[in-house]
Design goal:
alpha/beta, two-stranded parallel ribbon
C-alpha cells in the first residue's frame, strides 16, 4: 500500500527509535508498507544502525549513497526507488507525529484521480506545536515562507515539514525532473507538481522541534539562491 522513505545523514543516534516507532505504528494501524532508509553519505554508522533496526521488518531496506549530496537528493532517490502506490517521506528525527499519517492517507485516497498531494503543516487550523522552535529560527522560517509564497507557491502556508504523501504518479511527476539537493527541495517538487496540475492539500499535524535538527535559522536565508533558481525555471519554461 505505502512506501515510507526516510532520508538520513549522520543519524546513528536517532534513526533506530524512529524506525521502531514507525514499525509499531504501521502494525497497530494494519498498514501494509515498505520502509526505505536512504543514507546520504553519513560519516557515522547510520547504515549499520538502520539495517539492524529493519532486520525483522520484511519489507525494509537501506540504500547507501555517497558522497553526501543533501537531503533533496536522498529523498529523490528513495521516492523514485519506492514500489508502492502511495509514497511518504518523513524526517529521521520523527518530529511530525505518526498520527498524522491517517489524515494524509484520507486526503490522498479521497481523490480518485490520484492527483492530490498531502503535506504536513503547522500553519493551518488544527495544527499543534508541542515544542516550538527557538524564537529567531521561528521568525526566520515565517519570513522565508512569505518569500516562498510570493515567488513560487502562493497559498501554501507551510512547505517545510518533512512529512509529505504522494501517489506513485505524483511522485514521478514531481521528482523525476527535480534538481535541488538542498533544503528547498520540497519547494521545487511541489512547484513542479503544481505546474503539472496536481493539487496540494495542507494537513494540520502535531509537530515538535527537535534540538538536534540539521536545519539552522540561517539555513532559510542561505537557500535564497535555490529559491531564485526555482523561480527562474518556472518563468522560462524549464519546469513544464
Amino acid at each position: 500500500m505505502i512506501s515510507v522513505v526516510i532520508p538520513a545523514y549522520n543519524e546513528a543516534e536517532r534513526i533506530a527509535p524512529t524506525i521502531s516507532e514507525l514499525i509499531d505504528h504501521l502494525a497497530a494501524a494494519d498498514i501494509d508498507a515498505e520502509i526505505i532508509v536512504v543514507d546520504d553519505g553519513s560519516a557515522d554508522d547510520t547504515i549499520g544502525v538502520a539495517s539492524r533496526a529493519l532486520r525483522e521488518f520484511p519489507a525494509g531496506k537501506v540504500i547507501p549513497t555517497s558522497p553526501n549530496r543533501g537531503k533533496g537528493h536522498a529523498v529523490r532517490v528513495g521516492m523514485l526507488a519506492a514500489s508502492r502506490p502511495l509514497r511518504l517521506f518523513m524526517d529521521a528525527d520523527g518530529s511530525t507525529s505518526l498520527d498524522s499519517l491517517q489524515p494524509c492517507l484520507e486526503a490522498v485516497q479521497a481523490d480518485p484521480s490520484g492527483r492530490t498531494i498531502a503535506i504536513a503543516s503547522v500553519a493551518v487550523k488544527g495544527a499543534v506545536i508541542t515544542h516550538p522552535q527557538p524564537f529567531p529560527r521561528g521568525i526566520a522560517g515565517r519570513v522565508a515562507n512569505l518569500i516562498i509564497q510570493a515567488l513560487v507557491l502562493p497559498g501554501i502556508k507551510d512547505t517545510q515539514r518533512g512529512f509529505k504523501l504522494f501517489t506513485a504518479e505524483a511522485t514521478e511527476a514531481a521528482f523525476t525532473d527535480a534538481t535541488v539537493n538542498g533544503w528547498l527541495f520540497d519547494v521545487e517538487t511541489l512547484a513542479i507538481a503544481k505546474r503539472r496540475g496536481y493539487t496540494i492539500v495542507e494537513i494540520p499535524v502535531v509537530w515538535e522541534h527537535r534540538e538536534d535538527s540539521r536545519v539552522t535559522g540561517g539555513s532559510y536565508f542561505s537557500t535564497l539562491g535555490e529559491l531564485l533558481a526555482i523561480r527562474w525555471r518556472l518563468w522560462f519554461g524549464a519546469i513544464r
